[in-house]
């Protein structure tokens, strides 16, 4: 199934559900950043979560940044996701590998670390981003973001994230966000029913791997609760807005002295985009042109 995002409602609009499949996105991130198994799982989970959080925003240019900084060997992790369905991200130490945890699963919690912070920045497109920070709960990312949604955004939510990665790469990845909206949150039985069903769900990637589609997964969870699947399917993809021109712009900011130094010592410059791993090369001629531009601007 192609990478996509689908929305649904239930309980007469009291429940909001969003599902996303990110198998190709996680695989592209794995290849671009040469991610280990556990780093693929950590970044893949966070990229799915970013797309799910961005999906409830209103203005087309809205974006969500999620930064996780724990005390584990993976270092920091950052993703940037938009309502337009694009997402990109990186981890500080992509090569870190750890033995599986007690359940035989990739030990994301240990790789991220259980002590640290989760930062979420929502940029609604007006130029005043809304940001919020919570302490990490487990470093497993799904728990940490659920805690964030409950405390910072005061919406009871269940967030299920999964990435299955084997020797041949990522074979299933995605996530599910189910939220009980304020008008229904007072209905405690509704919240309880939902919680028990989610607890029984055998995880997201096993369902995907058994061939279940997003509408079928929604049906399993909310089929008898007035489920309405919204008709539009949104495509999602790994995308970075970096370009050679932007790299030149960044190099120019270094100033004449530094640029001349690069020409003399390195005969050019090489820059790697943190977010997507793309490598850009600027020749001595291109650097010399930047120096000319700087001189022309300072006259
Ligand atoms: Zn890039």
Could you walk me through the main structural features you see in this protein, from its secondary elements to its overall organization?
By secondary structure, this protein is α+β, with helices and mostly antiparallel strands. It folds into 2 domains: 4-238, Hsp33 domain (3-Layer(bab) Sandwich), CATH 3.55.30; 244-298, Alpha-Beta Complex (CBS domain Like), CATH 3.90.1280. The protein contains 11 helices and 14 strands. It has helices at 23-33, 37-54, 108-112, 142-151, 182-185, 188-200, 204-209, 214-222, 244-252, 256-266, 284-298; strands spanning 4-10, 15-21, 63-70, 76-82, 86-91, 116-123, 130-135, 157-166, 169-180, 228-229, 234-235, 237-238, 268-272, 279-283. The strands form 3 sheets. Strands 1, 2, 8, 9, 10 and 11 form a 6-stranded antiparallel β-sheet that branches. The longest helix is centred in the first third of the chain and has 18 residues, at 37-54. The radius of gyration is 22 Å and the shape is elongated.
């Amino acid at each position: 199934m192609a990478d996509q995002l689908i929305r649904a409602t239930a309980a007469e609009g009291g429940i909001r559900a969003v599902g996303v499949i990110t198998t190709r996105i996680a695989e592209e991130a794995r290849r671009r950043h040469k991610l280990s198994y556990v780093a693929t799982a950590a970044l893949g989970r966070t990229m799915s979560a970013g797309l799910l959080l961005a999906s409830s925003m209103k203005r087309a240019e809205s974006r969500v940044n999620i930064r996780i900084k724990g005390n584990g060997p993976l270092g920091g992790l950052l993703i940037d996701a938009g309502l337009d369905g694009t997402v990109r991200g990186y981890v500080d130490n992509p090569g870190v590998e750890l033995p599986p945890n007690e359940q035989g699963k990739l030990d994301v919690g240990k790789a991220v670390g259980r002590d640290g912070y989760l930062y979420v920045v929502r940029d609604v497109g007006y130029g005043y981003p809304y940001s919020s920070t919570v302490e990490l709960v487990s470093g497993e990312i799904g728990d940490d973001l659920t805690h964030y949604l409950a405390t910072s955004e005061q919406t009871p939510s269940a967030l299920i994230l999964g990435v299955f990665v084997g020797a041949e790469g990522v074979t299933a990845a995605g996530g599910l966000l189910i939220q009980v909206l304020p008008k229904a949150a007072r209905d405690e039985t509704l919240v309880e029913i939902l919680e028990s069903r989610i607890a029984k769900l055998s995880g997201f990637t096993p369902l995907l791997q058994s061939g279940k589609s997003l509408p079928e997964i929604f049906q399993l969870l909310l089929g008898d609760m007035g489920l309405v699947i919204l008709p539009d399917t949104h495509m999602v993809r790994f995308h970075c807005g970096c370009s050679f021109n932007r790299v030149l712009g960044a190099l120019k900011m270094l100033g004449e002295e530094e640029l001349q130094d690069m020409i003399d010592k390195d005969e050019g410059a090489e820059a790697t985009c943190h977010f997507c791993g793309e490598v850009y090369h600027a020749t001595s001629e291109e650097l010399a042109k930047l120096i000319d531009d700087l001189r022309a601007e300072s006259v």
